[in-house]
Amino acid sequence: MLYPMEKRRREEEEEEEENKGVLSEQHKCVYKGKSVSLTTFYRIARNTMNMCFNKEPAASEVEQEYWRIVEQRDCHVAVHYGKVDTNTHGSGFPVGKSEPFSKHGWNLTVLPNNSGSILRHLGAVPGVTIPWLNIGMVFSTSCWSRDQNRLPYIDYLHTGADCIWYSVPAEEKTKLDKVVHRLLQANGTPGLEMLERNVMISPEVLSREGIRVHRTVQQSGQFVVCFPGTFVSKVCCGYSVSETVHFATPQWMNLGYETAKDLKCRRIAKPFSMEKLLYQIATAEAKRDNGVLLSTISTPLKDLRNVEMRQRQELYEAGLLSSARYGTPDNNQSPSDGRKKPRKWLALESSERRCQTCQHLCYLSMVVQENENVVFCLECALDYVEKYKSCRGLKMMYRYDEEQINSLVNQVCGKAMVKSSDNCNSPPGSGKAGAKRGARKRATVEVSLSRLSPSTPPPPSATHLPKNNTHLPKSTALVS
Ligand SMILES: [Zn+2]
Questions:
Q1: What's the gap in Å between 48 CA and the centre of ligand 1?
Q2: How far away, in angstroms, is 202 Cα from ligand 1 center?
Q3: 288 and 238 in a common domain
Q4: How far is the CA of 338 from the centre of ligand 1 (A)?
Q5: Which of 394, 415, 436 is the last residue before a domain boundary?
Q6: 415, 434, 461: which is the final residue of a domain?
Q7: CATH number of the CATH domain containing 218
Q8: Cα 381 to ligand 1 centre (Å)
């Protein structure tokens, strides 16, 4: 059932003994390999292809053989798959200032920072806003997965053989959860969590179980766009090099915010701070009077403020009286109290600290145990204080004080196109602002996607750029 190559982040989870079923140690098929040069990889890819096929196969032939091997389980086939950070090894897109299309909106090194993408407020984060290259060979597989942050992403096949993509729309998640749980005899682990562990299930099997599965073949020079929360798996039909990066339209915000909360509950480390993203969008966009965007972020921002203020209050009431400011407030928000930052915490300004308990990336505030160099998020600090009945040695570190946070929330709500019944001044804790997942209609996202391109596509003679670039909206394979 499993024949993947890339070892994912969740190695530890896989090593847990909790699942003795199909995901036990003896069934584990993904192993981390060593670093090889592209030339070596290409040679292995060519040899593997020659071993499996007499002549260059069509995508459908590779697909048929792939599922025959996976389903019959009578022979073992090992192939390789590589993931390369373009920040250190360079992108396949032109990046030199004088190179043509180095600033083009469909250049994936540029796309996350286009005006329609709210991720431009995040800065450079490898694997999120900095693209990565995927190097594949015949049968190289990306197992069923959806992005951890439910971010949409875009993949461009630079060169090489076709890639077959299978996708299950986000709306099918409840059904998929049940089906996967049953198929994998998951013993209580939710099916969707099982899918986080390198599992490949035939689209035919899923389809027979009533799941809506789509398939598309991506050719060299084509983009594939994956919508937020879509479940995707991919099989390479030969040596190929593609490049992927995330972006986000404002419609993603509520889903992203709820997902970040869920990851925190499950103590899973996230690659970036949702609080920071939200706060930076708010500070930057409040100046620009972008009513539509501000109303999109006002609900999660209020929820963030309410949770933050409630937890600060609870810690204060529990006896945590020692506090200090840290970090540099956003350049447009000069600290109103003009208090000096404590010198010894200057080191915290540039580094992002994670809660040692839940892995949460602390942004607005954290509780530190100065002598032990231990960091807690407010929620875990509350648990700690509850458990040990003491705040000794603990200190609250905050980036913004209550007044500053309230002022930003009021500024955003004031400019947002909100209903008059929406109360921005609800007292902390009382307003379960409930950042509900908005109905994410596909049509809405498609409209926004087209806004990502700030300029018209280049002429078809463009070097380095997609062959089908002139027909982008049509040739873009929409997954889900
Ligand atoms: Zn925590």
A1: 46
A2: 38
A3: no
A4: 29
A5: 415
A6: 415
A7: 2.60.120.650
A8: 7
Q: Spell out the per-residue pLDDT of the chain, length 480, in tens.
A: 333 333 333 343 444 444 445 555 556 678 888 889 999 999 999 999 999 999 999 999 999 999 999 888 888 889 999 999 998 889 999 999 899 999 999 999 999 999 999 999 999 999 999 999 999 999 999 999 999 999 999 999 999 999 999 999 999 999 999 999 999 887 778 888 888 888 899 999 999 999 999 999 999 999 999 999 999 999 999 999 999 999 999 999 999 999 999 999 999 999 999 999 999 999 998 888 888 899 999 999 999 999 999 999 999 999 999 999 987 654 444 444 444 444 454 445 445 789 999 999 999 999 998 788 899 999 999 999 999 999 989 999 999 999 999 999 999 988 876 544 445 554 444 333 333 333 333 333 333 333 334 444 443 333 343 333 333 333 333 333
Are 20 and 143 in a shared domain? yes
Angle between helices 291-317 and 274-286 (to 10 degrees): 130
Distance from Cα 262 to the centre of ligand 1, integer Å: 12
Closest alpha carbon to 351 in 339, 337, 363:
363
254 C-alpha vs ligand 1 centroid, how far in Å? 21
Contacts of residue 28, Cβ cutoff 8 Å, sequence gap at least 6: 2, 14
Q: What pairs with residue 394 in β-bridges?
A: 369
Residues 280 and 401 grouped into a single domain: yes
Cα of 79 from ligand 1 centre, angstroms: 39
Can you list the positions of beta strands (E) in 12-170?
81-85, 132-136, 141-145, 153-160, 163-168
Tell me, what CATH number does 398's domain have?
2.10.110.20
3-state helix/strand/coil string of 178-243: HHHHHHCCCCCCCHHHHCCCCCCCCHHHHHHCCCCCEEEEECCCCEEEECCCCEEEEEECCCEEEE
Range of the domain at 126: 11-249+452-479
Spacing, Cα 434 to ligand 1 middle (Å): 21
Which pTM does this prediction carry?
0.79
CA 317 to ligand 1 centroid distance, Å: 19
Please give the backbone phi and psi of residue 80, each rounded to the nearest 5 degrees, phi first: -115, 160
Question: Does one domain contain both 283 and 396?
Answer: yes
C-alpha 363 to ligand 1 mean position (Å): 12
124 Cα–ligand 1 center, Å: 24
Residue 441 lies in a domain: no
User: Domain check: are 123 and 218 in the same one?
Assistant: yes
Which residue has 């570190």 as its token pair?
397
Q: How far apart are CA 310 and CA 329, in angstroms?
A: 21
Going from the Cα of 285 to the center of ligand 1, the distance in angstroms, rounded, reads 29
